[in-house]
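Structure request: nitrilase, Brassica rapa subsp. pekinensis.
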Amino acid sequence: MSKALNATTPGFPDIPSTIVRATIVQASTVYNDTPKTIEKAEKFIAEAASDGAQLVVFPEAFIAGYPRGYRFGIGVGVHNEAGRDCFRRYHASAIVVPGPEVDKLAEIARKYKVYLVMGAMEKDGYTLYCTALFFSSEGRFLGKHRKVMPTSLERCIWGFGDGSTIPVYDTPLGKLGAAICWENRMPLYRTSLYGKGIELYCAPTADGSKEWQSSMMHIAIEGGCFVLSACQFCLRKDFPDHADYLFTDWYPDQHQEAIVSQGGSVIISPLGKILAGPNFESEGLITADLDLGDVARAKLYFDVVGHYSRPEIFNLTVNETPKKPVTFVSKSVKAEDDSEPQDK
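Returned structure:
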């Protein structure tokens, strides 16, 4: 249950506010070992739940891993066996949705009574999608969001999500949704989430830059929502050895303890206040108590899809129809004009 806090203003009656304890897990994947990655996730979820967390958010591609530095042997007009085999191993670590790993994550959410947002690599046949998975505290898989626009070289190894997986779930904690990494730079994508009334805006990411913090602050203020940005913290030693990897280390000493993904996970209120983080130092938990009354307080002055919009000038249409590359139509009843000619 969410907690209630009485907010008293002189001249007004007490109005209970809903308080939600939210936790971001900032940690590295166990690369090439999905079962151990899920075991690691459960340990962090157990720790968060023991501290009262009701919502737990993981980074982008936590299941199977963000392929930072991987090149898959790709160059213009270049194909090679080493790159193909690297993709084969990466594909093997990805999960089918729904599937046994999704069932396991749902059971973990139920066990610890938390709403869970998990970044994962999803495989649909042999195409991979960068996906956010949503689970209820009762252990129900709510659904998923597939990243609609992979960035840079991601486009060579990941598919593109369509408008059918841009959900915002109306939960007892608040309206919950996600934008993955640089989707957060897409104004129209953000607006689609605002239009669905998002209050708990999850931003799983692989961007640990200082500039990213500015984007998260802007979105919290623009959307009048809580922003929970979850990024992995990884050292060079967390990745499998491979001569073709190209890391941009955050620090010049390129030894095994060198940081290659520096985290920066942060929780920001609709009023633009940093509630927890950013953590650029280590793996760990970033936790804050969210007063959902701040959503209304923020929207007094600015409601981007409400009183501060001008729909007679600007409007957005979102196509939520699933886009399938192949559609099969079965003819179950013979059409009239296909029947045998009748004698007159």
